[in-house]
Amino acid sequence: MPAQFTAIYEKGEKYYIGYCPEVPGANGQGETLEECRESLQEAIKLVLQDRLEDALWGIPEDAIRETVAVA
Question: Where does 1-71 show beta strands of DSSP type E?
Answer without folding.
Answer: 8-11, 16-19, 27-30
